[in-house]
Amino acid sequence: MGVVLLSSPLFSQANCTRVTSTSSLTTELINEGYTASSWTGACHNACGGNIGLPPIVSISSSSSFTPAGSLLASSTANFLTASQAKAYTENQILFRCALADAGSLSEIYTTQSYSAYSGMYETTDIEGAYHTYVNNVAIRLTNLKTGNYFTGRWQSRLLTSDDWVQDDTYIYIPASAFSDVYVELLRTSSTAITGISTSPYLYAWGYNSGFIGFRGPGLASAGVVDGVLEGGNYYGWYENYPGSFGMYGHVTFVRGAMCLVKDYPSVVLLPTISTASLNNGETSQSTFDISLSCEDAAISSVSKSTSSSANVAMGFLVNQSTAVTAATTLGLTSTNGLTHLLDTNYGSSGVASGVGIRIYDQNGNVLNLLSSKTMTTGNDGGWYAYKDLTTSQDDSTDGVTTYTGNFTASLEAISGETVTAGSVNAQLQVVVSFQ
Length: 435
Fold this sequence. Notes:
Elements: E1 16-18, H1 27-31, E2 56-60, E3 71-77, H2 79-82, E4 93-98, E5 106-111, H3 116-120, E6 130-131, E7 137-143, E8 155-158, E9 165-166, E10 170-174, E11 181-187, E12 201-202, E13 210-215, E14 243-245, E15 252-256, E16 259-263, H4 275-279, E17 284-295, E18 299-300, E19 311-317, H5 321-329, E20 355-360, E21 366-367, H6 378-381, E22 384-385, H7 386-389, E23 391-392, E24 400-413, E25 429-434
């Protein structure tokens, strides 16, 4: 009699798990510098990080002065530092998957389409932009690895071996695998939904404007389908969504008559000067002009704006972090600002040292420089009432007047430092803002 043996086929169970401790990592992986720790995910306001927008965003009370589509503010939100209140480290492992899962692991991203002010209503006048809780302000998020705008419908980016690390058993997904996000705040005239117009207003709408999640076998987020509205398809919320992007508690909106930078030189050239001359107290100087367009009702002041007074100030921002750090290290600081502008690569080979650039106004007064866009720090921090640094050109047209200031950039020896020969290439940005 013949015997037939029947058995069930063997399947390799592919699955992913969320990693919150080093117990999910091998000793070899830890020795290579990878780590793991508890992380929350994209819950509401308490979990999001600072996405890098200026602390004050100015909104003109006139739509003709800043028409629909005008950029109000922007930032690049680094996934590691901006997507959670507790920053990730580059080599922090967030998920672990079976080797068989390769080819089915994705970053997924969307706006929060079930929230009226966080991604449900796209504006009618700006592509890819969504209404916020503040009237006339739209937000647009761009995934910097795909180049696509976030929308209310899920999109995905297939992860590859370039994004992860693996051993003979598992694939490990580090925080560095996920995308940074370009954030834009734009003036909108869309009336698809109406927000509030309170001023000043610290953003208190608790829902995030966008999410980045992870989709893989075995996770609840495996049910997320590309092209489907997030509002009805949010499997894995929020434990499988390591990134959230919003403005809660970080941005104050001020509305009123304002100024815009109208004209400025892209380059200011300073004459060549010898180290001997600098050591003898001589300077190399060049003048330049800055022009502002200001609404006639704008208030020139460094005082903090109130519900009845939107105060406008201007300043010169040192926008290179290495220059800020170098100046701070050398003690070239006021209480809240900087006294000198240094080369972007100060301390590097071929770069002059022992020298810095000071900025003087048209009356010969030396100006402090902004080390950040922190508001209401006054003259000490680098903010000046715009009428203190400029002169009206008496050319008012349609309620807007030009103000022009003449300034001097002066290359000088730094007291107590040795001057060495080399090039000087520094960057400075003129900014105007409500306080």
